[in-house]
Amino acid sequence: xxxxxxxxxxxxxxxxxxxxxxxxxxxxxxxxxxxxxxxxxxxxxxxxxxxxxxxxxxxxxxxxxxxxxxxxxxxxxxxxxxxxxxxxxxxxxxxxxxxxxxxxxxxxxxxxxxxxxxxxxxxxxxxxxxxxxxxxxxxxxxxxxxxxxxxxxxxxxxxxxxxxxxxxxxxxxxxxxxxxxxxxxxxxxxxxxxxxxxxxxxxxxxxxxxxxxxxxxxxxxxxxxxxxxxxxxxxxxxxxxxxxxxxxxxxxxxxxxxxxxxxxxxxxxxxxx
Length: 273
Prior knowledge:
The chain is mainly α. It has 2 domains: 34-154, Up-down Bundle (Four Helix Bundle (Hemerythrin (Met), subunit A)); 156-273. Helices cover 81% and strands 0% of the residues. The chain contains 8 helices and no strands. It has helices spanning 2-57, 62-80, 88-118, 123-151, 157-181, 196-211, 218-239, 247-270. α3 (88-118) packs antiparallel against α4. The two termini are 40 Å apart.
């Protein structure tokens, strides 16, 4: 009997340890998943506005109408997929984000309807849309930080750097599309006050930093090399954005670069577990 008891105690202890470990994994997975959804919502928000500028600049090209619709659907899905917030401050920000997203979505759809029905859009609603976009980006960024603070979870450094690089590429594409469209002779960008060539310089520098990270696996290095090849193809056009504009090219390649960076971010995140 004593030998059975001596075996039972370690077994029960092991089971308890496993249950606690699984619980901690689930707890850490919840904020990690929500932070990823929030990041993807931010990308979709920026892309929807950039594609609207392309839609406007190319006189209602239906390719961009479809892309706007896809971004809005993705953004809504990411927002709906967010779980329970870890604290009161994040709950309040989440509510603000939901309200502002619905307003932005409605305004964007209304502008698309105006383009379809009358062939143009008034200047003020576009300015209002850009401002609404910037509010969403500000609130979502604050919520991204607050979730980490209240859940005591931090996004791994290289995963975060990759995500920031994706957002920077999306911002560059958005600003380029806005300038190319020259909506009403005015520029409504992605909230960045810096010129595109300066943003391009930052992107190139940060890409070099990621490429030289010691933690890179052969797969990550190969992915970053492929991203670098695509980046170099559009870099000159971005640095000389006041010369001949190539909005379709920038839009196409930025989408591919962002897709690659998101894959790299996922690989960095997976390597942490």
